[in-house]
C-alpha cells in the first residue's frame, strides 16, 4: 500500500524541482523511449534529406510520432486533456495510465512525493478544461492533508479514500490518484455513489487494482476485471522492447515501433479501435526486428514513404 511521504520537506522539494506545465506540450520527439531513466530526453536529429522528395518523405515520417509527448510532464498534461475531453463528451468512467518507470517505482526514496507533485498537472488541466469542481482523492489521509496545505491556490479539492465522506454532492469530477488493489472496496463504493443521483464522472489515474493477485481467489480477480470493464481507457502510454502502445482520447489506439534510421524516434505500425492484444504486439515486434535487420544489411538508401503500410521507396546508392 502506498505510504504518505512522511517528511513535509520531501514533497516541498519535489514540488519546487518540478516545473508544472499548464498548457499543451510543445511538439518534440519521443522522450527517452519512455522506458529508460537514463535515456536522453532529446531525440537525435534526423539525417539530412538528400533531395526535395527525401525531405517530403522525412516530414511524413516525423508526423507519425508527433502525437507522442516530449517529456513526462507533457505526458501527464496529455492524460489530463484526454480525460477532460472524455468528460466533456459525456463519458462517465475513464482510466488514464502511464506505464513508465518514473511512475511505477514508488518505493524509491522521494518517488512518491514527485508523483503527488506531478499529479497536479493532471488535476489543473481537468479543472481548466472541464470548468467543473474537481475532487482529487488520494490513497492516504496524510498525503491529502499535506497537499491541501501546500496547494492552497489549487482550483480543485483534495480528499483521501480513508475519509469518512471523500465525495461531496457538489463535486463535479472525481479523480482517484493511483488507487491500488487493497483499496478496491472503497473505490467501488465511491464509483457506486457517483453513479447515483446526481450522476458524476469518475477518472482513475494510474490505478493498480489488478496487482497483487498471488493468493487471491478467482472470484475476486473476476470481480476486479468486471469492475474495470465499466471504464474506458482514455489515455495510455506503455513501452515495448522495440516500440510503444499509445492512446489519447478521442484518437484510436496506436502501436509504434522503433525507427531504425533515427534514434529515439518511432514509426506508426498500426491503429485500432480496441487495445492491442498480445498477438498484435508480437507481430509488431517481429516486423520491427525484421525491418531493422533489413535496413542494416541493405545496399540501398531507403526512404520510408508510408510507414503504416511498410512501403519503401529505394534508390540505389
From TrEMBL:
Region Disordered: start-end pairs: 14-58
Protein name: DUF1995 domain-containing protein
Highest taxon above the source species: Eukaryota
InterPro entries in the record: Chloroplast_ADK (IPR053021), DUF1995 (IPR018962)
Classification via PANTHER family: DOMAIN PROTEIN, PUTATIVE (DUF1995)-RELATED
Biased composition (Low complexity): 37-58
Every DUF1995 domain range: 69-282
Organism lineage: Eukaryota, Viridiplantae, Streptophyta, Embryophyta, Tracheophyta
Amino acid at each position: 500500500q502506498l505510504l504518505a511521504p512522511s517528511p513535509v520537506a520531501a514533497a516541498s522539494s519535489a514540488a519546487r524541482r518540478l516545473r508544472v506545465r499548464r498548457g499543451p506540450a510543445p511538439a518534440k520527439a519521443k522522450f527517452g523511449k519512455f522506458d529508460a531513466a537514463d535515456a536522453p530526453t532529446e531525440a537525435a536529429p534526423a539525417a539530412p534529406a538528400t533531395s526535395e522528395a527525401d525531405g517530403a518523405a522525412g516530414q511524413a515520417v516525423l508526423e507519425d510520432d508527433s502525437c507522442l509527448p516530449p517529456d513526462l510532464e507533457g505526458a501527464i498534461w496529455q492524460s489530463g486533456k484526454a480525460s477532460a475531453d472524455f468528460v466533456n463528451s459525456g463519458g462517465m468512467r475513464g482510466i488514464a495510465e502511464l506505464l513508465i518507470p518514473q511512475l511505477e517505482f514508488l518505493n524509491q526514496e522521494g518517488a512518491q512525493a514527485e508523483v503527488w507533485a506531478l499529479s497536479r498537472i493532471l488535476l489543473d488541466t481537468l479543472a481548466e478544461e472541464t470548468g467543473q469542481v474537481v475532487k482529487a482523492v488520494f490513497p492516504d489521509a496524510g498525503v491529502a492533508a499535506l497537499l491541501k496545505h501546500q496547494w492552497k491556490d489549487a482550483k480543485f479539492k483534495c480528499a483521501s479514500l480513508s475519509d469518512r465522506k471523500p465525495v461531496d454532492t457538489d463535486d463535479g469530477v472525481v479523480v482517484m490518484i493511483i488507487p491500488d488493489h487493497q483499496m478496491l472496496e472503497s473505490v467501488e463504493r465511491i464509483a457506486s455513489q457517483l453513479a447515483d443521483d446526481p450522476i458524476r464522472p469518475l477518472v482513475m489515474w494510474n490505478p493498480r487494482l489488478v496487482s497483487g493477485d498471488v493468493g487471491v481467489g478467482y472470484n475476486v480477480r473476476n470481480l476486479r476485471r468486471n469492475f474495470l470493464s465499466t471504464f474506458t481507457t482514455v489515455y495510455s502510454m506503455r513501452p515495448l522492447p522495440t516500440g510503444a502502445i499509445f492512446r489519447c482520447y478521442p484518437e484510436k489506439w496506436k502501436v509504434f515501433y522503433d525507427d531504425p534510421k533515427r534514434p529515439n524516434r518511432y514509426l506508426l505500425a498500426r491503429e485500432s479501435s480496441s487495445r492491442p492484444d498480445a498477438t498484435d504486439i508480437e507481430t509488431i515486434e517481429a516486423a520491427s526486428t525484421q525491418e531493422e535487420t533489413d535496413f542494416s544489411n541493405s545496399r540501398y538508401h531507403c526512404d520510408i514513404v508510408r510507414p503504416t503500410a511498410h512501403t519503401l521507396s529505394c534508390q540505389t546508392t
